[in-house]
Amino acid sequence: MADSTAAGGLTGYGRTQRRDAWWIENLPFAIVLTLFAVYTTWRAFAGDYYWTDPYLSPFYSPLIDPEHHWWPFSPALLILGGPLGFRLTCYYYRKAYYRAFFQDPPACAVSEKKGKNYCGETTFPFILQNIHRYFFYIAIIFVAFLWYDAIRAFFFPNGVGVGVGTLIMLANIILLTIYTFSCHSFRHLIGGKLDCFSCTAFGPARHSTWRGVTALNEHHMLWAWVSMISVGLTDLYIRLVASGALRDIRLL
Ligand code: FES
């Protein structure tokens, strides 16, 4: 919370003693996230051009009831809550969208709008952000499905091969996997909550894993950005190929 102490004793929205362009950091996030939200909403509700053998859009995976036997709407609407909930409750995204959209606070050491009324994540609805760990468990299931899709992308109707789409799907799931397993909750679960690795079961293995996850976690913001952009571009590529606007090039 950027109270008057953090803002150098100044009060009032946006007051600060900082001399740098602190507001610039919020702009790219606000623009990219807004574009991503608009594109994702359009694609989720559209319910078309999400599959062209052997490529399946990540927005529709796992594909449930594509023939509309019992679900009359877009299949994406059945599954998007999982990945969306994971991103919305992500520690990094929370910091970023609280600053960019809620201005609460606008930045470090910058006075915020609400002052004394700020309750943060101690009250409804933002207290629900604490279920992030459970979304992490759900995200692992999605990662498994997307790995299956990426492997499936090597199997074309006329045999095994590699297309541009195959490489795009592979790069996308690698980035999503790194983003998922660089999660702060995972780092906590794997060892961050321990005071003594040598006093616990599988201590050496947990310590090595924790060190690896920590190395990834240090760049969690980067993984959050590149994986978000890659998932959008993967869907866009598959949509263009499925609609006939673009021809997938077979490399092997
Ligand atoms: S903290 Fe970002 S995914 Fe968990």
Written description of the protein model:
The structure is a single chain. The chain has 252 residues and is mainly alpha-helical. The chain has a domain at 24-92 and 131-182 and 219-243. The protein has helices spanning 26-46, 76-79, 81-88, 91-102, 132-152, 164-181, 184-192, 203-217, 220-243, and strands at residues 51-52, 55-56, 155-156, 159-160. It has a two-stranded antiparallel sheet. A hairpin with a 2-residue loop joins strand 3 (155-156) and strand 4. Bound molecules: FE2/S2 (inorganic) cluster. FE2/S2 (inorganic) cluster binds next to helix 4, helix 5 and helix 7.
Strand content: under 5%
Quantity of strands, as a count: 4
Q: Could you report the average pLDDT, rounded to the nearest whole number?
A: 92
Number of helices: 9
Could you give the distance between the termini?
54 Å
Bound molecules: FE2/S2 (inorganic) cluster
Q: What structural class results from the helix and strand content?
A: mainly alpha
Give Rg in angstroms.
21 Å
Helix content: 40-55%
**Can you summarize the main beta sheet?**
2 strands, antiparallel
Strand order in space, largest sheet: 1-2
Shape: globular
Low-confidence stretches: none
Order of helices and strands: HEEHHHHEEHHHH
